[in-house]
Every structure is written in C-alpha cells, then in structure tokens.
Design a protein that fits this description.
Elements lengths: L3 H6 L6 H7 L7 E3 L5 E3 L1 H5 L8 E7 L9 H14 L4 E5 L4 H5 L7 E2 L2 E4 L1 H5 L5 H21 L6 E6 L3 E3 L9 E3 L10 E3 L1 E3 L4 H8 L3 H9 L2 E5 L4 E3 L6 H8 L6 E5 L4 E4 L14 H10 L2 E5 L4 H16 L5 E6 L1 H7 L12 H19 L5 E6 L6 H13 L4 E4 L1 H4 L5 H13 L14 H11 L5 E3 L2 H15 L4 E4 L19 E10 L4 E6 L18 E2 L5 E2 L3
C-alpha cells in the first residue's frame, strides 16, 4: 500500500467552494485560502445557529502508547462511513501543532485512506491561526513589560508576573529564561519562560469562545500577574484585550477542508489535552451541528483526559449534549498494555491482549458514568490475527458493551460502514442522557477529588496546605463554580506514565494549581507536566526536506 503522503497527493481533491456547496454555504460566506481550504464568515454562521441541530458523536480512545491508536484516522473514517451510508456528516478536528510535527509525532491529519487534505498545508502553516494566537499572546507579554517600564500604574509586582511567552515549537532551552537584561533602557530584569503555543490560555479561549464579543471578554479576564497585596491584575487592566482581539479576529473563524472522499471537515483550534481541554473549537462544532445531520469530533489523548474534559468542560460551557461515544482501540496498543515490548507487537499474543484489555474496559465504564452509550471501534492493523480480533470482540461483548472491527486505514469508508450504521442506530435511539460528572456548586477541591477517584480510580489526592488555601481563595473571589482541568500524564490512569493497564488505589499528587480565568477553568497539575516539550534525540525535523521535484518529504 502507498504511504500516507502518496495517497494524499494522488487524491482527487475538489475546489473548496464545491465542498461548501455540499453544506449549502454560499460562496460569499467563505474566504478561500488557495483552492482547497477556506474560512467561514462568522456573521453568516451566526445566522445558521437557529437551524435544527445534528447529532453529536465523540471519538475518544484508550490511553496512548507508542504502538498507536489512530483516533484521528478513525474520526475521519467514521465521518466518511456516515456519508457513504447516505448521512450528511461533518468531522470536526483540532489543528496540528508545528512542535510535534517537527519533533516526534509527525503529522496529525489521519492516515491511509482516512485522511483530511491538503495534508501538508494542514500540518504546517494552514490558515495562520496558530501564528495569530502566538502573536496575540506575545503582544500581551510585551505590553506587560512595557507597562512596568513606563511607571507601572497598576502596581504589578514583577516577581508575580505569571504570563509567559509562547512559540509553536519544541524548545527546552526556552523553558526558563531571564528577560530585560542589558541595562536600564531594557526594563526590569525578571525570570520568565516560554510555553508551546498550544499550551497558551489564548488557545483555550479561542476554542471556548462563542463569538467575537465573548472572545474579547475572555481575553480581558486573563490574569497576567499579581500586585504586592496579591490582588490579581487582569489583561483588561492594561488595555491589551482590544488589540489582541484584532489579531485574533480571523483566527476565530472555522477552517473548512475535506477528506480524501471529498466530505466536509472543520479543522479549528488545538489546545493541549493536558494543560487545557484538548478539543476543537466550540464555534466549529456548533457550525457542524447547524449545517449537518451528524458531527464527528474527537478529544485529545485517552478518554481519561480528552473525553473527561470534553464532557466536563466543553459540553458544560457550550451546552452540548453528545449522542454517542466511540472509543478507539488497537490490538497492538492493548498488547502493549499487557506487557508486550514494542518490537514484539506484531506477534500473536492473546494472553497479553486479554491482560491489556483492562485499560479499554476501564474507559468504557468511565464513559458510562456520564450516562452515554458507548461502542468500541477496533482500528485494524495488518498484523492483527483472527484469534486476537475474535478475542477482543468477545472481551468487549462479555463486559456488556460492543466492539466493531474497522478497516478504514486500508479501505476508506467501506471499512467503517458497519460502525457508521451502528452509531446511527445509537444516536436515533435516544439512549444518551448526558450528565457531567460533577455539579458546578461542588468545591474546587472536591471536583479534583471527584475526577481523581471516579475517572483515575485513585484512593485519594495529595495536596499541601498552600494549594488548598489557593483553591479556597479563588472560591472567595468568585471562581468556585468553574470546572477543573486535570493536567497529568496521558499514558496512564495514574500520575506514573509507566503504570499501564488499569491501576487503582493510587494517590494523585497535586503539585500546583493555576487559574485560567479567561478560558474559564482551574488547572490542577498532577505530577510532572511539561508545557514546553523538548525535541527527541533524533527529531523528525532532521528528515524533513524538499526533493528535486519541489515536494516536501519526511513530514509523514
């Protein structure tokens, strides 16, 4: 079979105006970026929100492993499958970050015959959204230091400036820096650092904002630091929110592209699933629901992180109610959870599969706690044996749920027809009775404990008096009803990335808490989480180049 990039380059891509026509989007409501991608008019979309709402399908997964799960590939494949059986379906995905593309992960636009295109554009600069977010974030950083330099009317304590700078690249050398060196004319020296752009609170704000007015309000609500009396200083206090909104005006508009089978796809926003909520934008999801009969969307990492935040943060804030959940699993990844080394995954091992399936069963149980129907999509690899497939189908069936084998990577929509038909049956049955895991009025500490115990199956959390005091202070300041955003390793239910399978009875350490007042959640950092990744020993960037035919090589 051809490589991902060869398949993408041989695809019959249609002009983006033709894709918009499938959704009855008029040409003047689209701003094309070349021939194959476009932004949609915010004003036009606002007028579509009164339309009948489609069904919302969440695609999530088991905990990620180096063996691969294929969540994006399955989301694209399911969307194509739904269209193949005659349904008007739209897939809504996050935009890839340059950091992982040039680091370890590579591209993030699907794979095989379940891709979104144009792949190279999507994985690189796309429509410039991430650049706009980077610029708006760093504009605020510059205004903060400038405000302090020119008299500091707000009385900002330079030691308590919490707003860093960002860049959309993995660069460990920038994690901790000192700014304003070089003498009086350069300002007051202080410690700072860089995060990766996808970890910026502005990224989360873009993805949770409902419109341009809501965007500016949320930007104004960003806490950039504290005064000497420890009172917060907001972005609006230094008059930065207006100019930042101007930079983000186009970035708030959803991006329309297509799948290999010429079905519409919205790709918009890309917040971390650790430090933020890890979902595409509310604007894009609502656009899909108003324009299509079905919307397939995904949440980052495993269900314990991405799906939990999608349901407890995004759905709560946006008033969304999912109709069905698909949990993606691969036999390879489950065998890895069962203790098989990566270089042995291609060999049949039913016993390891059975052992590792505890991870999948735990995720099924967790999603059911939200009163949502679940179906497992087994993302097929050519190394999977019939004995392994039948074993996994039986394991899921014995648990009271159901699994369907999917071959979208090799067969496109033909490989997901069965999953698509079953998902439609679930959506139309009205089984879903969505409820968030906790109520708004629960204390912040109890919300953290709820997620730790109910989703991670921890016996308790550990947090020192300073953290508990900080949570209490935020509650007194009016932030007590915010949801919590748990930042922990994506590789395990615990805070230990090496604890595979379905660990329980562990203690979740709360190392730090942060208030994202603009985004509207409280971040609880569990263990060691990096907001600025580093490059691996041999980064993907070393193999990426342009060949003699002026084609990009090594990106996929």
């Amino acid at each position: 079979m051809s490589s991902d990039i060869e398949i993408a380059r041989n695809a019959n891509i249609k002009p983006i105006l033709d894709i918009g026509a499938k959704l009855n989007i008029p040409n003047d409501a689209m701003s094309p970026f070349g021939h194959y991608k476009a932004k949609l008019s915010s004003n036009w979309l606002d007028g579509q929100l009164k339309n009948k709402k489609g069904k919302l399908i969440l695609v999530t997964a088991i905990n990620p492993t180096p063996a691969g799960e294929g969540k994006t590939t399955t989301s694209v494949g399911l969307n194509d499958g739904l269209n193949k059986i005659g349904k008007k379906s739209i897939v809504c995905l996050r935009e890839p970050s340059l950091g992982p593309c040039f680091g370890m992960k590579g591209g993030a636009a699907g794979g095989g015959y379940a891709q979104v295109v144009p792949m190279e554009d999507i994985n690189l600069h796309f429509t410039g959204d991430f650049h706009a977010i980077t610029s708006a974030h760093n504009l605020l950083s510059a205004i903060i230091d400038n405000h302090i330099y020119w008299g500091n009317k707000q009385g900002i304590d330079p030691r308590r400036v919490s707003w860093k700078r960002v860049i959309d690249m993995n660069d460990r050398a920038l994690r901790n820096i000192v700014v304003s060196l070089g003498g009086v004319s350069n300002g007051f020296p202080r410690e700072s650092g860089f995060d990766i752009t996808v970890a910026s609170e502005i990224m989360a704000i873009i993805c949770l904002s409902e419109n341009i007015d809501d965007l500016q309000k949320r930007l104004g609500d960003i806490i950039i630091g504290y005064r000497r009396d420890k009172s917060p200083v907001f972005c609006r206090d230094i008059n930065a929110d207006g100019s930042m909104t101007v930079l983000l005006k186009e970035a708030l508009q959803p991006n329309l592209v297509q799948t290999l089978e010429n079905n519409p796809a919205f790709i918009h926003g890309g917040p971390f699933a650790n430090i933020a909520h890890g979902c595409n934008s509310v604007v894009a999801t609502r656009a899909g629901l108003s324009l299509g009969d079905y919307v397939v969307t995904e949440a980052g990492f495993g269900a314990d992180l991405g799906a939990e935040k999608f349901l407890n943060i995004k759905c709560r804030k946006a008033g969304l109610k999912p109709d069905a959940v698909v949990i993606v699993a691969t036999i390879r990844a489950l065998k890895m959870n069962g203790g098989v080394p990566r270089d042995q995954l291609s060999k049949e091992n039913v016993n390891a599969l059975k052992l590792g399936s505890s991870n999948l069963l735990r995720h099924i149980e967790n999603i059911q706690k939200f009163k949502l129907p679940v179906v497992v999509g087994i993302n097929h690899f050519i190394s999977d044996t019939d004995a392994e497939v039948n074993s996994l189908l039986g394991i899921v069936s014995d648990s009271g749920s159901e699994a369907i084998l999917c071959k979208h990577w090799s067969d496109g929509s033909a490989g997901t027809e069965n999953l698509a038909k079953r998902v439609v049956e679930i959506c139309e049955s009205g089984e879903a009775d969505f409820h968030p895991l906790y109520e708004d009025n629960l204390s912040l500490l109890d919300k953290i404990k709820c997620v730790a115990k109910e989703i991670y199956r921890a016996s308790d959390i550990s947090a020192d008096k300073k953290i508990i005091h900080q949570l209490n202070e935020w509650e007194k300041s009016g932030f007590g009803k915010l949801p919590v955003c748990m930042a922990k390793t994506q590789y395990s239910f615990s805070s230990d990335p090496n604890a595979l399978g379905a660990p329980e009875g562990h203690v979740i350490p709360i190392r730090e808490v942060r208030l994202s007042a603009g985004a509207g959640f409280v971040v609880a950092i569990c263990g060691d989480i990096m907001t600025m990744p580093g490059l691996p020993s041999v980064p993907a960037a070393e193999k990426i180049h342009i060949d003699n035919n002026n084609l990009v090589q090594g990106l996929f």
